[in-house]
Amino acid sequence: GPGEGRAAVLLQPFVHQVGGHTSMLTYDEHTVCKPLVSQELSFYESLPLAMRQFTPQYKGIVSVHLKKDSLGNLTLIASPGLGQPDSCGHLDSAGGDPAVTLWHKRKWAAGSSSEHGRVKWGHSQVTKAFKDSCPGKMLLRTDLQYHTDSFLEDANGKQPERKSYNPWGLHCHRQHLNRMSSKHNENKLQQFLLLENVVSKYSYPCILDLKMGTRQHGDDASEEKKARHIKKCEQSTSASLGVRICGMQVYQADTGHFLCKDKYYGRKLSPEGFRQTLRQFLSNGNQLRTELLEPIILRLKALLSVIRKQSSYRFYSSSLLIIYDGQEHKESADHHLPFPKTHGTNPSRVDVRMIDFAHTTFKGSKSNPNPTPYDGPDHGYIFGLENLIKILQNLSEGK
């Protein structure tokens, strides 16, 4: 039959999710997936060529349905391209379109060993699952404590020591599974978007997730949601700087751990606190990685010139990721390099990517909730980018 010979793939929560509220899952080494929103699909399908270097590559759609076994274990099974026969053509290189199994205990699966019955989101299971999916390099330290979340408690209900995997993605994942199990029956298909994993090439991905712009609510927001978002902007650096921190993980060479911050931390920052946190993001625990500043600034300026040309686009509630590798490549040791240390920054070592387009609107969008398109570029986004560039330039001048 058609399903024969397809390898099942285990979908894991995406370890490096530092922000957002949608559950991101790992499809394969270079691909993540997230629940499909038609407005976001519409954006990726009509993506302006100039923006492609600043967004993840769109790779197609998979259909996911929920299965529950007799023990109440939840399973998410995905099969590529159901109802979208041609959308997954470019995944063929990965060996056909595998049926994908996201296999999940009701709370958390403690690996495939036959531990009995249902498992709590125990700290040790979380740790095990992440060690399995990211061997050897993912010991994270976190400032986050979700007091409401049982996965941060050990078997005796105690808070574990603050040495954990970045808990944000797990928090989102658990909420998503709970929502799916209450909302969807077993036969209901949910479509997921397949996107490039933009951090797969980094050994120690340091990631800053920035909400860009002075306005966060989409055109489709209810009055209540609109008011809530406006308030969040007014009370954070979104109003004053056009950008606020939504999440971060930064590798500390001195301790060998990642330092993590979440959106609640980012919302409370003053403009000065924002500057300090940006500095912390570019520090390895000992000193500022000054060699990163120029390549990041150059890439932000390139993005700025692209955004200025996108008439009618409004990137409400989208994020900008700044990414670099926490593992430093000691240039001085590599005497065979073709240029002196002063130019020793390989620009590809830093990356800047726009993500999250569920509320992005533009002229001609099939799913645009706003029938009257906006005119000109997204000035709120531009304001945020200009301020970000200014702050980084000040950092590089030692201010």
Protein traits:
inositol hexakisphosphate kinase activity, 21% strand, disordered N terminus, 15 strands, eight-stranded mixed beta sheet, 399 residues, kinase, globular, D-amino Acid Aminotransferase, Chain A, domain 1, single chain, alpha+beta, five-stranded antiparallel beta sheet, transferase, 26% helix, 9 helices
Account of the protein in words:
This protein is α+β, with helices and mostly antiparallel strands. The chain is built from nine helices and 15 strands. An eight-stranded mixed β-sheet has the order 1-7-6-5-8-4-3-2. A five-stranded antiparallel β-sheet has the order 11-10-9-13-14. It has a two-stranded antiparallel ribbon with strand order 12-15. A hairpin with a 4-residue loop joins strand 10 and strand 11. It is globular and about 60 Å long. The relative contact order is 0.16. Residues 1-5, 82-164 and 339-345 have low confidence and may be disordered. It is an enzyme of class 2 (transferase). Its EC number is 2.7.-.-.
